Write the structure tokens for this entry.
Amino acid sequence: MALIVHKYGGTSMGSPERIQSVARRVAKWARAGHQLVVVPSAMSGETNRLLALAKQVAPEATTTEAMRELDMIASTGEQVSVGLLALALHAEGVPAVSYTGWQVPIATDNAYTRARIEKIDDARVRDDLAAGKVVVITGFQGVDGDGHVTTLGRGGSDTSAVAIAAALQATECLIYTDVDGVYTTDPRIVADARRLTTISFEEMLEMASLGSKVLQIRAVEFAGKYRVPLRVLSSFTPWEIAIDEEANSGTLITFEEDVKMEQAVVSGIAFNRDEAKISLVGVTDKPGIAHMILGPVADANIDVDVIIQNVSHDGRTDFSFTVHRNDYARTMELMRSAVLPKTGAAGLLGDDRICKVSIVGIGMRSHVGVASRMFRALSEEGINIQMITTSEIKTSVVLDEKYMELAVRALHKTFDLDQGPAAQ
Ligand code: ADP
Ligand code: ASP
Ligand code: MG
């Protein structure tokens, strides 16, 4: 008997029929003698619907008070899901009980809309498991030190599931979704993307941080920190398939580099359309300039991603950086009001029609010339690179958004990702 955490995403929970299918799958695992904790997301589209309602009432909900209410609203989608799933389990004859984040409780900090899990009290859950119940816990939400409901950022149910698995020292955390594993790139963009049977933790971390939304980055971080065995698999296989077959399907996130993976120089391609670029042109080049520009951005709690400062000419330089597109207007305003006057910059340019495309692979450590192959492939497609950043196992380029799909496809081909070493 093992303690297993299942997580089901929005599409997997998308209709009463889908929820019944999830219940049958969970019942199959429970009947096989396992203890089950299930973490569902809101039904597909529900979180968007709730946040759109909030936007209609308050288009600019940026104050802390307003963000608190956004979490109050957005968290309800998951509350409906857990209740429905528990009912569907009862209908299968499986004892089950549902909890919201604050009932467990799942303690978080108070950063509304992107809170971080700090501690999970496992007492209640363990009691229910010992009493033979399946425990169904809301994804995406928790409670701060003052009892306010918080949410964990979009896609946060992945993180709830992995954190719960870590707290309970579960044997495995299975992330059921609408694709049958982690692919070399998003199969919605490249039809011949291939499923990976395994991916190293480090590569998964990069893929997630660079935009592959199949797993939320904090979920991968948790898995790494607490060594939670993590697998991504499909909730769309027939629910009655054999448990052994199901348990070995999908993609396993591994913590040791195996020989097979070392053969691939590039394992995957990630992309992200959520960023915007801001440039200050003709900034006086003197010590402290980067801090003068980015200090106010950090103070406003805005995350900066790519940063480039050019070589200076005649004591002046250009300084560019990217932020999340949602923070674009706020950052531009900050530049105009607080930064431009101090830096003596000649101009301010902004572009919220950019994308970032990245190649990821631990094989890049031991191979030279990988980045230049990437640049050549893009130039052959006539795609101009606006910014470049590299680390040991990834190279990212910032491009005009309109070239995103072309770039991803070209790179997928250049690095032979359509030909494996992926799933058999
Ligand atoms: P869920 O609702 O189950 O959490 P998500 O929509 O958050 O599902 O994540 C699954 C989606 O992630 C897939 O449908 C796919 O389009 C997308 N995706 C992006 N990159 C990848 C990748 N490398 N491998 C698999 N899926 C990916
Ligand atoms: N329902 C939340 C969202 O749509 C959390 C999740 O699906 O993981 O972002
Ligand atoms: Mg998701």
